Amino acid sequence: MINGLTSTLAGFKNRLVLEVSVGSGRSALPLLANIVPQLVGLDLSQEMLQQAKLKAKSFKKNLVFIQADAEQLPFIRDIFDWTVFMSMMHYFSSTEKILRTFTMSKRLTRV
After folding, report:
1. How far apart are CA 60 and CA 84, in angstroms?
2. Which of 8, 59, 84, 88 is 20 to 30 A removed from 24 (C-alpha atoms)?
3. DSSP letters of 49-90?
4. Residue 9: what pLDDT?
5. Cβ 45 vs Cβ 91: under 8 Å
6. What is the reported pTM?
7. Residue 10: alpha-carbon gap to chain centroid
8. Residue pair 5/84 in contact by the 8 Å Cβ criterion
9. Domain of 52?
10. Whole-number pLDDT of residue 7
11. Which residues of the chain have pLDDT under 70?
């Protein structure tokens, strides 16, 4: 999955990418290492964000972690060039909320 995502986002150097439900950074870190986007990692769990921060110390200038609910994103619409969802859609409470989150960026990748 990560290789496919890396291929899809290959042209996104210095673009703004949101990863919803970033967790421990399992997919965010390979993206940063191979593509170097400006990445915002969002997760509801403070514990998972702490794990991701520990793993990502060398990427500080390209990475920001935010604790927030994916159903109520704290961003303006279309601010991101791409939004990545990795194995997390089952956490949403309704289809409408999934669709609202999908519209936060210009492009969407679901893996």
Report:
1. 19
2. 8
3. HHHHHHHTGGGGGGEEEEE--GGG-SS-TT-BSEEEE-S-GG
4. 64
5. no
6. 0.74
7. 15
8. yes
9. 2-110
10. 67
11. 1-13, 36-37, 60, 86-92, 95, 97-111
Residues 6+ apart with CB under 8 A from 86: 1, 5, 19, 21, 23, 26, 27, 111
What per-residue confidence (pLDDT) applies to 98? Answer: 67
Question: How many domains are there within the chain?
Answer: 1
CA pair distance 65, 13, nearest whole angstrom? 19
Q: For residue 36, what is the domain's CATH number?
A: 3.40.50.150
Contact 36, 12 (CB under 8 A): no
Tokens 């769990």 correspond to: 45
Residue with tokens 């210095």: 14
Q: Give the residue carrying structure tokens 């859609």.
A: 89
Q: Is 97 helix (H, G, I), strand (E, B) or coil?
A: helix
pLDDT score, position 74: 86
| In the block, residue with structure tokens 């919803």 | 20
Beta-carbon count within 10 A of 35 CB: 21
